[in-house]
């Protein structure tokens, strides 16, 4: 059955790939992000096979989010699937050197933005007794690594918030899923490295990372399983990635 899918952060990476995947299936799309030129180009590409509505949105702006649905054409306001994908990491400095503003931006986007969108869309889903919230978490929400401090903590929020939503929605036909990707080549590292293309490329050097289409296929699949099946969480890494061993320092000696 055809769905209306709202994707945040549809201007690049996972969001853009999800737009293509749902469009391929013939679903209707509502796409948002801050970069309208990107959304415009995507809409022109996909409009032949899907109904596509685009709207600029900064998910960190509560007032903009509040007015988002009302600004859509009336026929596009009933959302069946919300892909809470907009998000970012900024910096890889250790906590004592990190930029506090970067931490605030990650909290505002990855936590508050996701809450704003959920609170906007969820009541209509509950009322219509139809809907699926798909949050894009991260392996960083479960597994710490140096420099992942605030970013990982925002994704730990996404993990637990997703579980909380699922708990609240028992007794409704709604579904909630947290997708937790590992190393994936998108614009993520370019953003994290503040536009340094060489540093961003180094992240993927010698690896075969996940891609936008890899994650989009999984996002699509969790919506396609029978309606009584809820994929609660799905952690996915490329074959080349695994967890680190515990760090053990052997140099501190008399400092302790
Ligand atoms: P990209 O940088 O390619 O895409 C991020 C998207 O988020 C862009 O479309 C951007 O659009 C949007 N975005 C960022 N801030 C805002 C905002 N304030 N309001 C609205 N949209 C915003 O990275 P990915 O596709 O990789 O990232 C998508 C999600 O996946 C993020 O939540 C990220 O944390 C997560 N993730 C990424 C992994 C990776 O290794 N790539 C692994 C695990 C999780 P615009 O700038 O136009 O607003
Ligand atoms: C992005 C994956 O490992 O860079 O969420 O944190 S990682």
Q: What is this structure's SSE topology?
A:
Blueprint (H helix, E strand, L loop, with lengths): L3 E5 L4 H12 L3 E6 L2 H11 L5 E5 L5 H7 L12 E4 L15 H29 L3 E5 L12 H20 L6 E7 L6 H5 L4 H8 L7 H13 L8 E4 L20
Bound molecules: NADPH dihydro-nicotinamide-adenine-dinucleotide phosphate and 2-hydroxyethylsulfonic acid.
GO molecular function, one term: oxidoreductase activity, acting on the CH-OH group of donors, NAD or NADP as acceptor
Organism: Candidatus Thiodiazotropha endoloripes
Protein name: NAD(P)-dependent oxidoreductase
Structure, explained:
- Strands 3-2-1-4-5-6-7 form a seven-stranded parallel β-sheet, sandwiched between helices.
- It has one domain (54-240): NAD(P)-binding Rossmann-like Domain (Rossmann fold, 3-Layer(aba) Sandwich), CATH 3.40.50.
- The mean pLDDT is 98.
- The protein has helices at 13-24, 36-46, 62-68, 100-128, 149-168, 188-192, 197-204, 212-224, and strands spanning 4-8, 28-33, 52-56, 81-84, 132-136, 175-181, 233-236.
- The protein is globular and about 70 Å long.
- 41% of the residues lie in helices and 14% in strands.
- The protein is an alpha/beta fold and 256 residues long.
- α1 (13-24) packs across α8 (212-224) and α4 packs parallel to α5 (149-168).
- 38% of the residues are buried.
- The N and C termini lie far apart (64 Å).
- α5 (149-168) links the parallel β5 (132-136) and β6.
- Pfam families: adh_short.
């Amino acid at each position: 059955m055809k769905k209306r899918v709202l994707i945040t952060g549809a201007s690049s990476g996972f969001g853009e790939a999800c737009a293509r995947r749902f469009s391929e299936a013939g679903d209707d799309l509502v796409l948002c992000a801050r970069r309208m030129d990107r959304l415009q180009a995507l809409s022109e590409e996909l409009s032949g096979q899907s109904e596509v509505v685009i709207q600029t949105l900064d998910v960190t702006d509560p007032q903009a989010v509040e007015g988002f649905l009302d600004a859509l054409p009336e026929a596009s306001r009933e959302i069946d699937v919300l892909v809470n994908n907009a998000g970012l990491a900024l910096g890889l400095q250790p906590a004592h050197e990190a930029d506090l503003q970067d931490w605030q931006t990650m909290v505002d986007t990855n936590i508050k933005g996701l809450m704003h969108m959920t609170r906007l869309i969820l009541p209509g889903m509950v009322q219509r007794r139809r809907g699926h919230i798909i949050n894009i978490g991260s392996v960083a929400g479960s597994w710490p690594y140096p420099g992942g401090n605030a970013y990982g903590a925002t994704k730990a929020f996404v993990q637990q918030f997703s579980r909380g939503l699922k708990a609240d929605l028992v007794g409704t036909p709604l579904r909630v899923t947290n997708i937790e990707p590992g190393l994936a080549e998108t614009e993520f590292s370019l953003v994290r490295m503040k536009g340094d293309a060489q540093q961003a490329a180094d992240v993927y050097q010698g690896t075969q990372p996940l891609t936008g289409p890899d994650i989009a296929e999984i996002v699509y699949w969790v919506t396609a399983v029978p309606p009584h099946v809820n994929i609660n969480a799905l952690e996915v890494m490329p074959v080349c990635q695994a967890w680190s061993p515990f760090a053990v320092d052997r140099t501190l000696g008399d400092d302790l």
